[in-house]
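Practice problem. Given the sequence and the SMILES for zinc ion, write out the predicted structure.
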Amino acid sequence: MSAPTDVVALAINTPRRFYRGGERILAFRGIDAPAGHDDHRPEDWLASTTHLFAEGGGGLSALPDGRTLAAALEEDPNGWLGADHVTAHGTEPGILTKLLDAGERLPVHSHPDRAFAAAHLDCAHGKTEAWIVLGAEPGATVWLGFRDDLTKEALAALVDDQGDGLLAALNPLRVEAGDAILVPAGQPHAIGEGVFVLEIQEPTDLSVMLEHARFGLEEAHAFLGLPVERALESVDTRTLDGEARADLQRRWVDVRGHGSALSERADEFFRAEVLASADGAVEGDAGFGVAVCVAGSGTVTTEHGEAAHRVTRGDVLLTPHAAGRIRVDGGATLIRCRPAAVPTATSTPTDLPGNT
Ligand SMILES: [Zn+2]
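Answer key:
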């Protein structure tokens, strides 16, 4: 079956996880709790072709016609992703997008990078991720990177202890709606209670759970089935200082019209484009993406679609490449999470800032 030539509305997809949360997702999406819902549905996996690493598998998104997105992609990868994407990146989107509602503080954890995942986990992707903060309780906090250099032995001792020392070793960052933070693979991090984010990441569920005991996680799950010492080699134990943190932080809410929500350091992994129509209509180019209406309401139309779609905060639309260009109007702000751009013939290293 060919990919649709218009946007596709996505229903929620909330696998059960080991930590609490989920109320903010239901409120944002404007829906009642479906049958079987409980207080451990803190993530809504949007347009997912990724399985959970543990916790019963699952995670794949379904389309309104009942097929999984993964199966639909196989039938028409060029239509969904665009021929250029398929040539450059293959027949998978290469991203995982989620809504995440931290009903309690998440454990301190980190994610392997591509090199580590390829060497030890038989996986081409690591997990660099980014948090696009949509809501936060007053004083809400996230933690990112070590405050001081740690030796491997010191890290191993903190992990062995499973006490409060791990969190205390990280940089705390106050967050509010409008913030956007890139979390490079290897950097230890935690999201605090009361933070609600749109998250974009490389398409894996590979986490090294440095803190695991208080969440009741098995060591095999916590360390990806690897020996602990091996798993800890994936953690960046160097100081993440203020300058480095600033390089990872942006304010998506300050984008007027069309622009990136994220630090340009995200570009090699994924994109998150803001389409803010408060000052007039904005357009985005054709391509696979997960467009989340994060503020206001308005309309979305596509180049090859039939109708204008009314959108309001909390709506989630999948944009197939075959739909062509997308136009947002009427005051709505969308953030469209997309795969990394396809390199063009003109983007030689001399074009990069800093090399001129
Ligand atoms: Zn993470």
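Check your answer against the key. Residues 109, 111, 129, 189 surround zinc ion (CB under 6 Å).
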